[in-house]
Automatic annotation (TrEMBL), chains A, B:
GO terms for molecular function: acetolactate synthase activity; acetolactate synthase regulator activity. The keyword Amino-acid biosynthesis applies. It comes from Desulfovibrio ferrophilus. SUPFAM superfamilies: ACT-like (SSF55021). One of its GO terms (cellular component) is cytosol. Its EC number is 2.2.1.6. PANTHER family: ACETOLACTATE SYNTHASE SMALL SUBUNIT, ACETOLACTATE SYNTHASE SMALL SUBUNIT 1, CHLOROPLASTIC. Belongs to the acetolactate synthase small subunit family. One of its GO terms (biological process) is L-valine biosynthetic process. This is Acetolactate synthase small subunit. Keywords: Amino-acid biosynthesis, Branched-chain amino acid biosynthesis, Transferase. Pathway: Amino-acid biosynthesis; L-valine biosynthesis; L-valine from pyruvate: step 1/4; Amino-acid biosynthesis; L-isoleucine biosynthesis; L-isoleucine from 2-oxobutanoate: step 1/4. Dimer of large and small chains. The keyword Amino-acid biosynthesis applies.
Amino acid sequence: MPRTISALVRNEPGVLAEMSEAIRKYNVNIKSISAGETENPDISRLTIGLVGQDEDIRKITEDIAEMDVIIQVDDLARKEFVDRELVLIKVAMEPAVTPQIMQIFEVFRANVVGMGQETITVEMSGDREKIDGLINMLKPHGIKSMCRSGMIALKRGDD
Amino acid sequence: MPRTISALVRNEPGVLAEMSEAIRKYNVNIKSISAGETENPDISRLTIGLVGQDEDIRKITEDIAEMDVIIQVDDLARKEFVDRELVLIKVAMEPAVTPQIMQIFEVFRANVVGMGQETITVEMSGDREKIDGLINMLKPHGIKSMCRSGMIALKRGDD
């Protein structure tokens, strides 16, 4: 099962190199990573999905917590959090199946953001299960290209 | 001006360490990074926003293109593409300003995903300008925490 950690880091060159080096040392794969600015321009928030042994991931979290550039690191498996992911999907669209595909978009509340002669591009946000659900429904029609943002998350409640 | 590059990479341990090391060598800052699975489970797509001299970013793109794990790398500044970003924002909410805040959410089509005694959490996807717009509107009310996915992008049209 993938584990997700969330870290607040100082915006300094080399932060990502340092963190990914800490992960590379253990036999753990990065499934997704997502980093962007926060309310403070000097600080970024990283959300990293990891696949590996729980024990190795625990050690990685400890190693990361000790770095100078790290302000805070949370293991999201242990907390209540809201998680979301964004996906862009370009799917083949033949005239005969257009109504079917449009119905899938409607059920999933996916928004059309682009159209070509033979393809249509949609965006959708949701939790991992919803994203996987849309992908599974569109797969038989032929996914031409796809881009997932990786999970982002915030704690539930007022904290 | 931030520049965005998009890379298709093989899912191997250490890919991110290798790429971020290549970026660290030049005096370039990673503004955002977003990596997730593609339609092929062995391949991930990375979208990286960089801030630095154009010449340095050109060299980074060249260095990355030569790596064994890299399948394709595009400089998105030079192509037509659809870009989107996802944000989760937890904003302070006092009863007196609730109608005002709800109106901002409605205008931006932001979805409420969580609520506490003193805060409300919304998600919204859009291009960078729309995300920045929502943040600027909510700032005066007090942003308690925020998580941005970093930009993801796909080429326009059928390619």
